[in-house]
């Protein structure tokens, strides 16, 4: 390592990590800096498109961005950072295979993001699935379609009812969009079953507060509830999941029923791996962050996104930036620019971005949006949702592929084939060895 070529270590390949490295790649290719990105996954997932990937509107491969292909000029390490000793500027890396080793750096970007925020609910770990990566989206799509197959072939009324009951916990963006998109897909799929009607399915959304989609405001949140209920979807507000052992769901309002499909989307929390660092954390386990995206109290350390408490300079109440893609992408761009400014001997600049608004899809041709204070519903909101997010997907390659998926959907019917057997590819071979 030489002083002339600073080594920038980016811990995490999500929104912040990938976009920061993307902003540094040209300087790395010119030899001004060296950039290393460490992440357990070799792709970045564009999470706002996960509901559409689960519903079959977008090819799952098109919502992930391969890091090595995108970050030319940067080194990508597939592994997990298990500890950071910033006092000595060393990170411990555990690769996918092989022993742990130390990796030295000059400057570090901590972009570990968030993980699902769970509660100690009986049966949750065994029966529920999350919705944060493309594998979970594919598995959930397969599960929903597989349950339709099971119900169609099942004479037992109780088992059939359980197969056709789908429960989502959490009324934020991830929960509502996945809930609405998958119901829309399943409703369409029932036309191919002679003994299943849309009204035979039960879709239940459980939310502990008194409203859903708080980001779009009270009025649009109420509108969303009304629209979903018109589709015969069961919205339970001010209700909590008490237990789901062996698929038997118990809600805080006293109702009990069986469900084969349970999805947990009740919020996120800062990655607990931050505890294995010598950086300052706040009461929520996030990195204390200055407005210029430096970690508070230390030099040569930066952060942004879900794992950072970034002051919102547009707020008069001392609030922090919301943990969403809109802020993460813009913070990453500012972060990359600030690192290059520091390398060139210039002071970093503060991050300041006034929240534009929110958009949410509620299924094909349905949505809600609030942009610059203007409320939009229905088809136009759905179109704005797609337009905004395709503009945010990194690289022209991915934008073109997503648009092509949507264009083909205009001329061909929705694909509703289950590939659930992909999750157990050796099952048939195993049976053959036992026969």
From TrEMBL:
Transmembrane stretches, start-end: 6-24
One Pfam family it belongs to: Pyr_redox_2
Protein name from the UniProt record: NADH dehydrogenase
SUPFAM superfamilies: FAD/NAD(P)-binding domain
Keywords tagged on the record: FAD, Flavoprotein, Membrane, NAD, Oxidoreductase, Transmembrane, Transmembrane helix
The keyword DNA-binding is annotated on this UniProt entry: no
UniProt keyword Nuclease present: no
Upper classification of the organism: Bacteria, Bacillati, Actinomycetota, Actinomycetes, Propionibacteriales
Enzyme class (EC, first level): oxidoreductase
Annotated EC: 1.6.99.3
Annotated organism of origin: Kribbella shirazensis
FAD/NAD(P)-binding domain: residues covered: 7-319
Similarity remark: Belongs to the NADH dehydrogenase family.
Molecular function terms, GO-annotated: NADH dehydrogenase activity
């Amino acid at each position: 390592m030489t002083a002339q070529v600073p080594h920038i270590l980016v811990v995490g390949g999500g929104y912040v990590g990938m976009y920061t490295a993307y902003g540094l790649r040209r300087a790395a290719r010119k030899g001004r800096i060296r950039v290393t990105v460490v992440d357990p996954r070799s792709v970045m997932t564009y999470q706002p498109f996960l509901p559409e990937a689960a519903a079959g509107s977008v090819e799952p491969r098109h919502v992930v961005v391969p890091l090595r292909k995108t970050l030319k000029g940067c080194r990508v390490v597939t592994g997990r950072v298990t500890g950071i000793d910033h006092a000595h500027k060393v990170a411990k890396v555990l690769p996918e295979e092989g022993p742990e080793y130390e990796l030295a750096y000059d400057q570090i970007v901590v972009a570990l993001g968030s993980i699902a925020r769970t509660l100690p609910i009986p049966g949750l770990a065994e029966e529920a699935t999350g919705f944060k990566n493309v594998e979970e989206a594919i598995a959930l799509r397969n599960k929903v379609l597989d349950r339709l197959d099971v119900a169609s072939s099942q004479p037992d009324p109780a088992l059939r009812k359980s197969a056709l009951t789908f429960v989502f916990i959490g009324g934020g963006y991830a929960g509502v969009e996945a809930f609405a998109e998958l119901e829309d897909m399943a409703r369409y799929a029932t036309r191919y079953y002679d003994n299943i009607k849309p009204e035979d399915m039960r879709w239940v959304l459980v939310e502990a507060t008194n409203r859903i989609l708080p980001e779009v405001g009270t009025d649009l949140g109420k509108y969303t509830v009304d629209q979903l209920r018109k589709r015969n979807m069961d919205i339970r507000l001010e209700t909590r999941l008490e237990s789901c052992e062996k698929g038997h769901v118990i809600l805080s309002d006293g109702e009990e029923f069986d469900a084969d499909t349970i999805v947990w989307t009740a919020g996120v929390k800062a990655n607990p791996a931050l505890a294995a660092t010598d950086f300052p954390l706040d009461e929520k386990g996030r990195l204390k962050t200055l407005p210029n995206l430096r970690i508070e109290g230390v030099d040569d350390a930066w952060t942004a996104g879900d794992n950072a408490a970034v002051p919102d300079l547009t707020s008069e109440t001392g609030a922090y930036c919301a943990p969403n893609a809109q802020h993460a992408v813009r913070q990453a761009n500012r972060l990359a620019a600030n690192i290059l400014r520091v390398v060139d001997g210039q002071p970093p600049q503060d991050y300041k971005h006034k929240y534009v608004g929110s958009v949410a899809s509620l299924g094909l041709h349905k949505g809600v949006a609030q942009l610059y204070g203007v409320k939009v519903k229905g088809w136009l909101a759905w179109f704005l949702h797609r337009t905004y997010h395709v503009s945010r997907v990194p690289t022209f390659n991915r934008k073109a592929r997503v648009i092509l998926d949507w264009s083909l959907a205009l001329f061909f019917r929705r694909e509703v084939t289950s590939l659930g057997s992909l999750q157990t590819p050796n099952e048939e071979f195993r049976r053959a060895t036992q026969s």
